[in-house]
Structure formats: C-alpha cells, structure tokens
Amino acid sequence: MKKQEIKKLTKDEAIKNIDKLKKDLFNFRFQKINSQITDPSKIGQTKKTIARLKTLLRGKLNA
To answer: What is the CATH number of the domain that holds 16?
Structure first.
C-alpha cells in the first residue's frame, strides 16, 4: 500500500488491513522456514505497512 492509499482509509478499514497483513506475515514466516517464499522482501514490506497503518490509527485516535 502506498502512503496516499493509507491516508484515505477509515479507522475500521485500517484495523481490518492490519489483521489481514498480520496473517500474511505469519504465512510468510512459514514459507521462509520451508524455503518456499519467492520474494523475501515481502516480509519487510509487510512489516512497514503494518507500522504505517498503526501510526495512522494513533493519529486518528488522538485527533
């Protein structure tokens, strides 16, 4: 997800995306252990996207 897409999300959409990305990250870890992952950079990208979404949520909760 790009920053512009993240900024447009509502609170509920951001929470749903975080849950989905956490499940994806869990699956990526298993793929990494079994040497089945095709693009290892997806793990880092997923972590960064989760952090961006959490930052957005914190900003919306404080506003």
So the answer is: 1.10.287
The domain tally of the chain equals: 1
Is 28's pLDDT higher than 80? yes
pTM of the model: 0.87
- State the pLDDT confidence band at 6, using cuts at 50, 70 and 90: confident
DSSP 5-62: HHHT--HHHHHHHHHHHHHHHHHHHHHHHTT--S-THHHHHHHHHHHHHHHHHHHHHH
The range of the structural domain enclosing residue 52 comes to 3-62
Tell me the chain's radius of gyration from C-alpha atoms. Answer: 13
